[in-house]
């Protein structure tokens, strides 16, 4: 949290919102990353554009890391734990009919009741998980 500033958060939120608006305006599609990834993996129209969007996410993070010069965080996690976490996230996005970006950014902006409920569930679960792992189990992040 040392590098976090309100200005950086505001700028990041603005850029995420701008990207979501541009994607909707230019393609008519919602910027839900799980849907974009699913469409990129499965054959169909617009597949290359989805891969470009995903590549832009990775490239944007890499450019920020390179420009900031900050050290990458190191996590000592086992591959089975990482795989289980990835599968849990994938299952959750299927059960919730979307991910935090689709529901939290785009759905709430459209005043979708389903997205508002989904985002409250996502955030509540995240808060509870941090509380349990940090305060009850004593795991540091």
Per-chain topology:
Elements: H1 6-27, H2 33-41, H3 47-68, H4 79-95, H5 100-109, H6 113-136
Characterise this structure.
This protein is mostly helical. The protein has one domain. Helices cover 74% and strands 0% of the residues. The chain has six helices and no strands. It has helices at residues 6-27, 33-41, 47-68, 79-95, 100-109, 113-136. Helix 2 (33-41) crosses helix 3 and helix 5 packs across helix 6. The model has no long low-confidence stretch (mean pLDDT 85).
Could you provide a short overview of the structure?
With 141 residues, the chain is mainly alpha-helical. 74% of the residues lie in helices and 0% in strands. It has helices at residues 6-27, 33-41, 47-68, 79-95, 100-109, 113-136.
Keywords, please?
single chain; 141 residues; mainly alpha; 6 helices; 74% helix
Unreliable stretches (pLDDT < 50, length at least 5) are none
End-to-end Cα distance, whole Å, is 12 Å
Q: Number of folding domains? A: 1
The profile of the biggest β sheet is: none
Q: Please state the CA-atom Rg, rounded to the nearest Å.
A: 17 Å
**Secondary structure: helix percent:** over 70%
Annotation, overall tally of beta strands: 0
Contiguous helical run count? 6
H/E topology pattern: HHHHHH
Structural class category:
mainly alpha
Beta-strand percent range: under 5%
| Principal-axis shape | globular
Mean pLDDT: 85
